[in-house]
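Annex B. Sample input.
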Amino acid sequence: MMDRKYSKWKLALLSLLAFGAAATPNRTFAHEPFHGCAKCGKACQQHVLVERTVMVPTVVTEKRLKTCVVENCEEREEKYTCFFVKPETKPITKECCYLADEIKTKSVTTTVGKLVQNPLTRLKKVQIPQVELIEKTICEAVCTECGPACVEKTCTCEKTTLVDDFVTEQDCAPQLVFEKTTKDIFYCVKTPKKLKLDCGEETVMKLEPVEKTRKVMVMVPKIEKQIYEVEVTRMVPKKILCCVECSRLSR
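Annex B, continued. Sample output.
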């Protein structure tokens, strides 16, 4: 942008110089005072100098907007805790240990074995005599007319035999039986116990907290936008008088 502006100004200055050189006659004005060229410092008369516009750096003060943190003093309410000394009486105790007799009971179980006669019923195998009547044929001698003769004769006789049989008899058999016996045994043991004894009293100072309220001034930060001035350098157009040679060099 700056180069374009400078080129436009150069074209305008060159056109003015060309027009001034063509319109200026070749004559001198003795009565006109001398002026100096703004570029080379050469002394020239007024009608020889050409007016040109150049960009000159100038310090300009500008106003800008910035964001800053501003601390404002405000009144707030604050709670605080203060402590007051308060006397307190405490008892002084002493703890003692001693052995006390204590009777305890213990159950003892003993097991004893003994023989016991148990009645039994036994079944015994025996042989019993049994009488049977059987018929038997015998020969009996009989005297007949013809002489002695043998005659068969049937007779009944008894026969005793042994027969198997079962007999029940009562008996006793020994058996080992275990019996449990429980007994209570009393015994004395020493048991440690504690005893507290009062020795006196003690006064101690205790701090008791109390809440209070007070007003304080605090700095509260706040974001604000402020206007401030800053010095910057800007290129400002300025009209100067220069000679023809300097005006031609600036084309």
